[in-house]
Amino acid sequence: MGDRSVTDRLKDFEEVDYGLSPKEAIEEAGRCLQCKKPGCVDGCPVNIDIPAFVALIAKGKFLEAAESIRQQNLLPAICGRVCPQETQCEALCILGKKDTPIRIGQLERFAADQERAKGLTVPARKTATGKRVAVIGSGPAGIVAAGELAKDGHDVVLYESLHAPGGVLTYGIPSFRLPKDVVKAEIDLILAMGVDLRLNHLVGRTVSFEELEEYDAILLGTGAGLPYFMGIPGENLSGVYSANEFLTRVNLMHAERFPEYDTPVAKMNRVVVVGGGNVAMDAARTARRMGAQVTLVYRRREEDLPARAAEVHHAKEEGIEFITCANPIRILGEQAVTGIECIRMQMCNLDKSGRPIPEPIDNDTFTLDCDVVIQAIGQGPNPVLVSQIPGLDKGRAGNVVTEEDGRTSHPKIFAAGDVTTGAATVIMAMGGAKQAARSISEMLGSR
Q1: Residue 334: inside a domain, yes or no?
Q2: Which pick of 250, 328, 396, 429 has the fewest CB atoms within 10 Å?
Q3: Which of 60, 84, 118 marks a domain boundary?
């Protein structure tokens, strides 16, 4: 897809890439071999019939293609933008063995955008069951579970602790990667199915767990919003942020428009972002748009970066400096950040995933001047609610333990998404939510 120029996109938070034109989409879809045993479907966590919608695009039937996708995926415009198709469906495309795989993600985005431009149609609901289900959290897992449960005819109440729905889709992923109007359109479609959204309701505080026991079933989709820190000296200095806080202040609370919105971040001239995942790229590229010179420090090699290749490419285009094989050991300053001390790392043995295990090189340190440090080294499940539910089994990281169908150790409670897996992808959370919603409907006798 074509990208906006670096000069233009650093001036605002508008979407970076343009998407496919109708002509480009038809041409790309026409490359599909329509395999009898399509591996791409096996690589999709929500089991979209990929050959079917691609064939419809090739015929110019764009709205029919979008309808085909929406049968299995309630958030196609979102998934088409942020899902790692290159490691999932596209990785199993047979064309990838000798040529470029079909650009499935771009085609999904194209079909969804065409549908949104024409006007979305509210999915049909089954006959009302009279059953009531509470869904906690309106991120990818919660919003998809709410939609699937509503389709099955249940009365769904969706609790959200913040003042806007969407979870990480709203507060975490910047608009230049996922426009907020796209998120709003797809969430509004699910709410139009009869889902009762209750904002500013923090279950476990403003709403007790006991108040939820009146429901026939409960689904936890509270995500992984608890940031991890490195535990190094200087983390209490002014100017140190978790990526969660930094991105929430900008994406949800409009810190980039201070003082129009009264939620500032520290004045930034030089920023160091620690980490190498998509969240680190989001934080670095956001800080760059707010006028800072940005350096990203990652403890492994560049080829080990877990972020999507496109995000790394865009970050480099936008002038972000990458320092790899290095790890911070101390943040410098008296009251506010003035710099960060790092140590060089060498790659030694491999871990279970095949990545090298970094180890520090004795006495090989260096210092970077900066006034803001953003740590993007991962996050875990928020303990506010899960710690209060009696009889709920939890893992060592605080995640809710579930069976494959989303059932927890509590007979009425199901769970899906990052609260069960730790921080993962949007599409994996959606896949788990679909399975959990199906299990709830089976328990309630509507399937």
Answers
A1: yes
A2: 396
A3: 118
**Number of helices (H) and strands (E), helices first, in the chain?**
17, 15
Q: Are 196 and 202 in contact (CB under 8 A)?
A: no
Kindly report, residue by residue over 140-151, the tens digit of the pLDDT: 999 999 999 999
Which one of 69, 89, 118 terminates a domain? Answer: 118
Tokens describing residue 257 = 């428009």
- Antiparallel, parallel or unpaired: β 339-350 and 356-369: antiparallel
* pLDDT tens digits, one per residue of 241-294: 999 999 999 999 999 888 889 888 988 999 999 999 999 999 999 999 999 999
- 3-state helix, strand, coil split of the chain in percent (to 5) is 35, 20, 45
Residue recorded with tokens 């994406």 = 251
* Together in a domain, 165 and 215: yes
Nearest to 101 by CA among 23, 3, 28: 28
To the nearest 10 degrees (0 to 180), the angle between helices 50-58 and 62-70 is 170
347 and 239 housed in the same domain: yes
Residue 127 lies in a domain: no
Provide CB contacts within 8 A for 186, sequence distance 6+: 74, 75, 76, 77, 78
**Where does the pLDDT of residue 446 fall: very low under 50, low under 70, confident under 90, or very high at 90 and above?**
low
List, for residues 114-129, the tens digit of each pLDDT value. Answer: 999 999 999 999 999 9
Shared domain for 150 and 25, answered yes or no, is no
| Amino acid identity at 240 | V
Q: Which residue range(s) make up the domain with 310?
A: 229-375
Burial 108-126 (b: 16+ CB within 10 A, else e): bbbbbbbbbeeebeebeee
My answer on whether 338 and 413 are in the same domain is: no
Rounded Cα distance, 189 and 193, in Å = 7
Tell whether 368 is covered by a domain. yes
Going by DSSP bridges, is the β-strand pair 240-242/372-375 parallel, antiparallel, or unpaired? parallel
Give the pLDDT confidence of 303-360 residue by residue, as tens digits: 999 999 999 999 999 999 999 999 999 999 999 999 999 999 999 888 888 888 999 9
The total number of structural domains in the chain stands at: 3
Given a cut of 80, is residue 447 above it in pLDDT?
A: no
400: CATH: 3.50.50.60
